[in-house]
Design a protein that fits this description.
It comes from Phytophthora cactorum. The protein is α+β, with helices and mostly antiparallel strands. The protein is 36% helix and 17% strand. It has one domain. The longest helix is centred in the N-terminal third of the chain and has 15 residues. The radius of gyration is 15 Å and the shape is flat.
Length: 75
């Protein structure tokens, strides 16, 4: 494999990469996470990980995790 284990490029991996940010930069204060478009999928996964310093989530422009077939959109 050219790039190694492809599981490292998953949405779960992206959400887990964000987790240390909250503990390092929040100073114990609670946070609200805002996700737009694909970010809504990452934030949804972050919700499952339940970081202790996050007390709210905002999703703007929901993108489905399962996606839609390519023939549904002209662009």
């Amino acid at each position: 494999m050219k790039y190694g284990d492809l599981a490292s490029f998953s949405t779960t991996s992206a959400a887990m990469d964000i987790l240390p940010f909250f503990s390092k930069y929040s100073n114990g204060a609670s946070s609200i996470v805002y996700g737009v478009s694909y970010g809504t999928v990452v934030v949804e996964r972050l919700m499952h990980l339940n970081p202790p310093t996050v007390n709210g989530y905002a999703l703007d422009g929901i993108a489905t995790a399962s996606g839609a077939s390519g023939n549904k959109f002209e662009y």
